[in-house]
Amino acid sequence: MSEATKQDHPKPAVVLVSGGLDSATTLAVAQREGYECHALSFDYGQRHAVELQAARDLAAAMNVASHRTAKIDLRAFGGSALTDDALDVPKDRDDDAMSADIPITYVPARNTIFLSYALALAEVIGSTDLFIGVNAVDYSGYPDCRPEFIEAFQHMANLATKAGVTAPGSDHSPLRIHTPLIDLPKPDIIRLGLDLGVDYAQTHSCYDPLAPDHVTPCGHCASCLLRLRAFEQLGQPDPAMIRHHGASRPA
Questions:
Q1: Confidence of residue 225 (pLDDT cuts 50, 70, 90)
Q2: What is the Cα–Cα distance from 46 to 42, expressed in whole angstroms?
Q3: Is the distance from CB of 219 to CB of 245 less than 8 angstroms?
Q4: Is residue 196 part of a domain?
Q5: Which of 35, 98, 167, 187 has its CA 20 to 30 A from that of 208?
Q6: Between these two residues, 165 and 36, which has the higher pLDDT value?
């Protein structure tokens, strides 16, 4: 029996839900472990809003206890192709190019900011469990997806919160950040999600969806390519591509 189900009522957990494949899988894992899931998404000035609609659709379909969307403005700083329209999203790069350095799609300090908001929500709802779908395997150039970062943030969180400073014993760390996907290759993440019943047709991962609606995945950015390759390794099409393009791989 999981820790989340050892009491009369399920333990609440804050789950970061972006609308993408990884966060949908993470939400399904948290639910499997018996947590009462409170989804948290961010309207942070990203170049498209379709992922927010995907997050809403996932939260509704997966019957979360609550879903909040926090509005923050990371466009005020820019520095990323996701928050600065003057920077182009790279397309059709091979694995070596994607892993050569920190990608221009990295949003400075994004996960630090997101986890800080999640920590605030956790304090309000009385939760000691945060779930985030970071992954350090596929083109792991994002510094805030590394295990070292998560460990350091968890340590800080237990110094900076009421639950942390009032917990009995100096070595007691009540707040935990769960990263169930951090060491999984993308095909294994998808396989896990399929086993848990995740509908990947509802997810959106594209960094640069096509005009004019800015909903249809481009099929050529790093995020799209990683999804496509992973589904192909599993011998099946990406259902999101089928949904939007009517084909397993766009032209």
A1: very high
A2: 9
A3: yes
A4: yes
A5: 187
A6: 36
Q: Is 159 helix (H, G, I), strand (E, B) or coil?
A: helix
Q: Is residue 247 part of a domain?
A: no
pLDDT at 3: 60
Q: Where are the alpha helices (DSSP H) in 33-146?
A: 50-61, 95-98, 110-125
Q: Is residue 180, in this structure, part of any structural domain at all?
A: yes
Counted domains in the chain: 1
- pLDDT value of position 119: 97
Answering whether pTM is above 0.90, one says yes
Compute the distance between CA of residue 180 and CA of residue 249 in angstroms, rounded to an integer. Answer: 28
Q: Are 122 and 14 in contact (CB under 8 A)?
A: yes
Question: For 65-95, how does the pLDDT look when each residue is reduced to its tens digit (9 = 90+)?
Answer: 999 999 999 999 999 999 999 999 999 888 7
Number of H helices, E strands in the chain: 9, 5
Asked whether residue 221 is assigned to any structural domain, the reply reads no
Q: Which residues contact 164 (CB under 8 A, 6 or more apart)?
A: 157, 158, 173, 174, 175
For the stretch 175-218, pLDDT in tens is 999 999 999 999 999 999 999 999 999 999 999 999 888 899 99
| Angle separating helix axes 21-32 and 186-195, nearest 10 degrees | 50
CB 188, CB 25: distance < 8 Å: no
- The tokens describing 27, both together, are 């939400």
**To the nearest 5 percent, what fractions of the chain are helix, strand and coil?**
40, 10, 45
**Contacts of residue 85, Cβ cutoff 8 Å, sequence gap at least 6:** 47
Q: What is the pLDDT of residue 162?
A: 78
